Every structure is written in C-alpha cells, then in structure tokens.
Amino acid sequence: MEEIQSQSDHYRSSSSSASSPASRVPSSNFFYLRKPGALRQPISFEDSPDWDDTDIEVKVEEGGGDSIRTANTPVSPSLSKLNSGSLPSPPLPEGAIIARKIAGASLVWKDLTVTIKGKRKYSDKVVKSSNGYALPGTMTVIMGPAKSGKSTLLRALAGRLPDSARIYGEVFVNGVKSRMPYGSYGFVERETMLIGSLTVREYLYYSALLQLPGFLSKKRSAVEDAIVAMSLGDYANKLIGGHCYMKGLPSGERRRVAIARELVMRPHILFIDEPLYHLDSVSALLMMVTMKKLANTGCTLIFTIYQSSTEVFGLFDRICLLSNGNTLFFGETLACLQHFSNAGFPCPIMQSPSDHFLRAINTDFDRIIAMCKNWQDDHGELSSVNMDTAVAIRTLEATYKSSADAAAVENMILKLIDKEGPTLKSKGKANFVGKIAVLTWRSLLIMSREWKYYWLRLILYMFLAICIGTVFSGLGHSLSSVGTRVAAVFVFVSFTSLLSIAGAPAQLKETKIYACEEANQHSGTFVFLIGQLLSSIPFLFLLSVSSSLVFYFLIGLRDEFSLLMYFTLNFFMCLLVNEGLVLLVATICQNIFWSIIVLVTIHMVMMLSAGYFRIRSALPRPVWMYPVSYIAFHTYSIQGLLENEYIGTSFAVGQVRSLSGYQALQSAYDISADVNSKWGNLLILFLMAVGYRVLVFILLQFRVRKTLSLRCLFRCNQNTNNPR
C-alpha cells in the first residue's frame, strides 16, 4: 500500500503541470509513463501480442509472497507494473508450484454500432461506430457517465445483448472474425446471483463440476487456482451469505467470488460489468490490484466502470471513454489526460482524472450548475470546465477524430487484423448425467441449510396439521360426521397448499441462479428442471409423511395401512403439483411480490371451484365448471382422499336399511362409485405435476432460444457487414 500511495503522490505532483497550458507534456516522474523516447507517440505498436504460448510459473517463497516469472507474456509498457511480491497472497502449502500454459488472445472491434429500439429518447443507436482493441496481459476499461453505452458495448463484444438489439460492424478474436467458443471467455454480470448457503470453496467447486469435463483432481486444482488468483484464501471456508447470526461476505469479496467462478474455466478473455459496483474505496483498490495481478498472468481483461479513485485509475492500461454512445477517446490512460489537455480541459490539481472526465462529459452537471448559480457567484465555479457539456462533448469528439491517437488506433487495428493468431478452441463441457447429479446434490445441500424456506416450512406444516386435527378431532364414524369430515379434508388440502406459497422466494432464487448459469452456458433447461425435481422429492416426501400422519390419526380416519399409504401418496402428489405451479409463476413473474399475489389469487379461485362450497356438478358451466374446476388440483386431491375413505363402506339407517359411502357423500361432494377411481385421480395429479414443469421448460427454452438467435444474428452481421 505504501508503494501505491507513493505512486499516487507522483501522479498528483505531475497533474499540476498538466493543468497549465504551458506544460502539456507529462513530467518524467508520472508513474504510468510510456517507454523512454516514446512520449510523443500516441500508442506504441510494440503492444501487439506475441502469439506464442507463454509458460508462467508461480512459485511460493518462504515469506508467503509470489514471485512470477514469465517467458513472453505480452504486457503494456504504459504502466509501471506492481511488484507482485509486495502484495502477499493467501498462504499456500510450502513449495507449491502452479504451472499454467496461457495463450494470448486479442479482441478487436471495428465500426461497431448497436441499436436498441426504444433505448434512447432521440436515437436508437446506443453505441455509434466504436473502434478499439484489448490485448493480453492488459486491463481495458470502458468508462463514461450513466446511459453512455458502457454495458451495451461490453455485452456486444461478448455477444450477450437482449433480443431487441441489432449489431453492425466487426469483432475479431486473435485477428479472425469468429465467435468465442465455450470456455475461452468469461462474463461477470453487474449483479450476480450467488448461493449464500454455500461456502466460497463449495460454491466454486460445484461451479467447476458444472463447467469442466475430466477428473475431479483437475477441477479441484482449478478451484484452488481461482481462490488464489482472487485472494480469497481467508474466506474460502466461510458461507457466502452467512447463517443465522453469522455475517456473510462483504460486497468486495462477493464480487471477487463472482469473478472467481468464471476463472475456474481459465478463460483467455474476461468481461466484467462494473467490478467496483457498490464497493467502497478500499475494497475498490483491493479489487483492482487483484485484477492487475490477474492481468499479469496473460488474461485479457475488459470491464466497465463509472468512476474511480486516482490510485485505481493509475492501474488501467487503456481507456475507452464514451458519452451518449460516441467514443470520445480510446488509448492509454496517460494519453487520455493529454487529450483532454489538448482539447482545452486540463485536469486540475488534487482532482481524480475520472472525476474530471465525467465532469466534462456528463450532462447532468449542467442542471447542478444551474441550480447552484447563485451559490457559485459567492464561492466560485463548481468545476474548471467553464463550458456547456454538449459543447465540451463535441469538442472532445472532434479533437479525438483528428488526433494522432485515433489514427494510431486504426493502424493498430489493421495490424492486429492482418496478423492472425491461433483459433480459440472449446474446452469441453461436463456430461449431461454429471450435471444432473451435481445440481441435485447441490440443491439438497442448500435445502439442508436454508432453514427459513425449508425447515421453518416443515414446522409450519406440522403446526397446521395439529391445529386442523385438533379442531376436527372426535368426529366418530356415524353418518352425521360425513359432512364435517369432508370439511376437514378440504381445509387440510387447501390450507397446506396455500402454505406452500412460502416456498416462492426459494423457487425464485433458484430460477435466478439458473438464469445466471445458463447465460454462461454452465447449465441447461432440462438439466435444471430434472435436478430441481429430484432434489425437491425428499423434502416434499418428508412434509407429506409428517403432516399426513398427524392429521390422519387426529381426525380418526379408517385404520388400515393401505389407506394410510394412499393418503400420504395423494398428499405428496398434491404438494408436487403445487411446487410446479409455484415454479411456473415465479418463472413468469420474476418478482417475489407479484409471484405471491398471483399465487394467492390462483389458489383462491381453485378453492372456490374445488366442489366444497358448491357441488361441482352444480357450478355454473361457463368459466367455473369449464375449465376452472378441471384445472384446480384441489378437486382431484380431495376426490381421491374421500374415495379412499368412503368407497367400500356403509352406514346403517335404522335397523333395516343402510347407505353406501358413495350415497352418503352425494349431498356433500361429487365422487365416483368406481373402486379404482381414486387411482385415476392420483394419475391426473401426476400428469399435472409433469405438465407444470413442461410449461416451465417451454418458457425457459423460449428465452434461451431468443438469446441463441441473437448470438446467431451477431455472427451473421459480422460475416455480412464490411467483408474482408
């Protein structure tokens, strides 16, 4: 940290000279100088990557620091590299050696334009004719104010734009127009869903099992490498989200865990959307120092950022400055300061460069200045940029287009395109059965630790069964008890089904985790649904057995083991159908508030048409009987339970006459006289459970296909626009 502080002091002392028009050439003690003799060259062509593979050996010394020896790692000469030994990594076993083979991967985008209908008020073009490149071993940052097109450009480069977007231009990987195969790149969202009930090591290990083929030892090695790379050794065995009264990981560590998940594949290119999102200054600096060490291993880093401190800004290699989709500058960080100075906006003393850049190009500052005009008259200007922001943006854009930096970028792009490197190959995926097993076991582990959504729910089910059982206890088996017993069965099925809505937050979290993993091709729709179904069966079976036993014996139903088993099986299928319904609604709504509102409404409608408040045959035929009563799973569950209890029984009426159970129920509930009809109701419940999950599969698959079609459109635009 002392080294970083001293470097910051050098920057601040040099910024004073840059702020004066008489001295626009940086002083020699600026800590991210170019090569000697190249100060007046906008970009050094020696930054182009060496396509030969690079052997990197990291050997841990006795002092705990890392000494990195690289053969031909391509790095940017624009920044003085941080000494990796000055920032100790988490301790590893003594003498441990991590050997890696890293091939350089460059990324070039040429005349890249992105249009999204309705995204902008005056124009659909979110990114306009952007040019740039990213080289191995460097950090390229896309900076700009809010709604400037930062995330859109990043997603366009990674091929992850929404279906409403259209892309024009060319993207080259290692000099070739081709899409990046699976495993060659990683993408970290601004807000990533992490599994809070797992430790850092467990979370990364399960991610490795989903992503990587091969042996377990290889996957464990990849996990440990990712933990070391992101300096997570001290947090490896801590729960991400905490447990009970234990605190979870801080925001900075959570972001590093999200990045480490993508590092498990050891990608050539890593895209990160806002790595400093919701981080304080210390966490942001630690994050960027960690990313700098990662870049030094040969990985190409491209990320967006809104604002940074002086120390963080000094770690960047190149900057792409955007405003309203227009590229105001692309090049090295020092050249950006010089560009602003040449345009008439030198960076003042004691001001962060990123603050100065955003002040000059962020139109929101015009409103602030207008609001504080009277205050400015007494206390001076709020900023050194004494010009309307729109004029400043046009000035910076015109200055850049006519500058040597823009010409140098075009020359570098041509050089990188003409020099084709090795084609990136897919690293393979985990097998289908293995993914199902991993997701099933991971979900079971999550259920065992999520006490709020699972164990508390079990307690509530037991409590509800006891309450209903004691209210309706002592009914006896007389003819007069039939109506009350029907009410008890209806209340038990309806209220327990309604209580299943408590599992909506857990289902919604699972769908979000699936969406995050599917976006990075770690999982699949069918794999997710099968794993979710298999993992939910033990928990639902535990709920059905415990609740059924309590209710069955408190109510005093028929004392036969086969009837008890059917009651339990029927209630289990009822819960399975309800879980599918909750999953379907959560997938559609994607919001916990609306999911609960919709589920409560659906359950109330199903309860009204289930045949208890009014016999099913007497319901109004439009809507209530057809189709609502046939869609309500309550109907088939209650019918099956009543048929299980009363078919084959009889009640004495006087001394001579008797009524069958079917006849006794005719005035209370519609059931079938067939002995095997209860199994038909059970089959219908099973088909409904399957049907709900099929609907979820279709819905999720439709979303995936839209994403895949967009990627295909992106590749087609690359091949048809500006052909080589």
Provide tags for this entry.
single chain; 724 residues; alpha/beta; six-stranded mixed beta sheet; three-stranded antiparallel beta sheet; elongated
Q: Can you walk through the features of this model?
A:
With 724 residues, the protein is α/β, with parallel strands linked by helices. 50% of the residues lie in helices and 13% in strands. Helix 3 (200-211) packs across helix 4 (216-229), helix 16 (482-499) packs antiparallel against helix 22 and helix 19 packs parallel to helix 24 (677-720). The radius of gyration is 32 Å and the shape is elongated.
Care to give the gist of this entry?
The protein is α/β, with parallel strands linked by helices.
Mean pLDDT: 79
Helix coverage percent: 40-55%
Q: Briefly note the structural class of the backbone.
A: alpha/beta
Tell me the distance between the termini: 48 Å
Number-wise, the strands total 16
Q: Specify the number of helices.
A: 24
The largest sheet has its strands arranged as 8-9-10-6-11-12
Shape: elongated
Which percent range describes the beta-strand content?
5-15%
User: What would you report as the Rg, rounded to the nearest angstrom?
Assistant: 32 Å
Give the low-confidence spans: 1-101, 708-724
**Biggest sheet: strands, sense, closure?**
6 strands, mixed
Q: Could you outline the blueprint of secondary structure elements for this entry?
A:
Layout (H helix, E strand, L loop, with lengths): L1 H17 L35 E7 L5 E5 L26 E6 L4 E10 L8 E10 L4 E5 L6 H9 L6 E9 L11 E4 L11 H12 L4 H14 L21 H13 L5 E4 L8 H15 L4 E6 L4 H4 L4 E6 L2 E7 H10 L10 H9 L2 H8 L1 H7 L9 H13 L2 H15 L13 H18 L1 H21 L10 H18 L4 H16 L5 H31 L5 H29 L2 H17 L13 E2 L2 E2 H4 L1 H14 L3 E4 L3 E4 H5 L11 H44 L4
InterPro entries: AAA+_ATPase, ABC2_TM, ABC_transporter-like_ATP-bd, P-loop_NTPase, Plant_ABCG
Family: Belongs to the ABC transporter superfamily. ABCG family. Eye pigment precursor importer (TC 3.A.1.204) subfamily.
GO cellular component, one term: membrane
